[in-house]
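Format notes (please read before filing issues)

Several people have asked whether sequences and structure tokens are stored in separate files. They are not. Every record keeps both together, in the order shown below: the sequence lines, then the token lines. Line labels are part of the format and must not be stripped during preprocessing.
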Amino acid sequence: MPPQGIYFEALVERSFKSIKKPYTKIQASNRNSPGHDLLVEGKRISLKTETGASTKANRITITKLCTTEKEPWNAPTLIARVLDHLSRYEFILMLRSIWERPLLHYQLLEIPIDRLRLIETADVQIAGTRKGRQSLGAKVMLNDQALFSVFFDASDGKCAIRGLPVSDCVMLREWDVKIE
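Then the structure lines:
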């Protein structure tokens, strides 16, 4: 099983240690508090993971870009919260594992924050049929081309990104691990 969450954080820290890069571990805080996962040479880094049988080789899903559960629950406010969240990082790194039996294909990449900031141009609308507070979503467009989708889930207050092309990211490394 690929590393996720705090295990991925530990691997990244260990990697920086092994190449003798100075780093500072960020003190643990409330799990839903915004903030970077690591501080490396003064650069704030957010770490994300994606794995599972439904992980696509060429498209990224970020199930929790950030939490936006507070009221008011409307498109301008939610977009402003996402942009504020993104302003707290210099880098977003993602470790992905694509299941291609008998291999796990790993990708380590940098997600471009400027690309995610295009959320501010999205025409966010009601998505789904939930009663009460409703989920919102949109396709994020550039020059009449859909880049990815943004989804604000009313049930858990999370902002998700779906369908971000891997080709829009900086591939730092790829490798395969054989599984038995």
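For reference, the curators noted about this record: The first strand starts at residue 23 and ends at 25. The two ends are 12 Å apart (CA to CA).
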